[in-house]
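Working notes for the structural subgroup meeting. M.R. asked for a predicted model of this chain before we commit to crystallization trials. I am recording the input and output together here so anyone reviewing the notebook later can reproduce the run.

Input as submitted:
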Amino acid sequence: MPTSTLRSQLDKDGFVVIRSILSPEQLTQLRDAAERTTALATAGKWPHVRTVGKQFPPWTWEPGVGIWGVQHLLNPSLPCAATFTASYFSDEILDVAKELLGPCSDDELVMELYNLLIRPSDGKDYELRWHRDDIPATASAEEEVARLAKPAWHAQWNLALCDNDESLIVVPGSHARARTAPERAAGPFEPAMPGQLVVQLNAGDVVFYNNNILHRGRYDGARDRLSLHGSVGHVAGGRLRARNVLQHAVGSWVDGCDFSGLPEKQRIRAEGMRARLVKLGRESGDVGYSLDG
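Returned structure, recorded in token form:
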């Protein structure tokens, strides 16, 4: 798909799918790193995880509790951090992000989040409720419209490393309007929301989406899932983006990230993006959490 069409499709539908964004070699490297990271987390040797039964941060892992995600892939303490760092700051991802954010330049990008979404480790199906990432379900129509009228200032994506990834369910166009009466009346796990679409990805496919589109996740306990879940911000987002990012406690380790293994262009870009994230953290203070549950 020509990049000139990406922004218009995102504005229209609230999401855009790009097929086969990775080379076979990149896919193999990332899948191997994701499998090793998942094994580490499920063995209780990496505490930064998303626990079954809790949709939003903060998460606290305990022995015997299943997990559906692994946090902080860029944390230098993670054994595979170098592989994930190369992926996050790659041209394949950030060239798309820059197109969706403006277009804009490297100097306007802000480092945000990189996590891994997995098959629930307890082997049971798990579902997330319908939500927008930064607008609570209790918001009135007027409050929704006011928030949605502001620029998104982010690019968020799910990059599938396994075939038959059908976990993300969206309502196309809902990022640009308040919820309808049927959407407001629907149950939190409504299986057939009017107009919903199941995003279908195979290994190497990526979906970029506005995080305030009405969406939910559905995790099949019997189907492999390894999906890199990332976001990058625009410097103009300021405090509007601060809570989305800083609620995930990245500030405790971001200064230690090692970008020395990146090619010079990506290294310079990564250092600038980190500096803008650190500045955002210093200026924002305690941001709390976007959603409960």
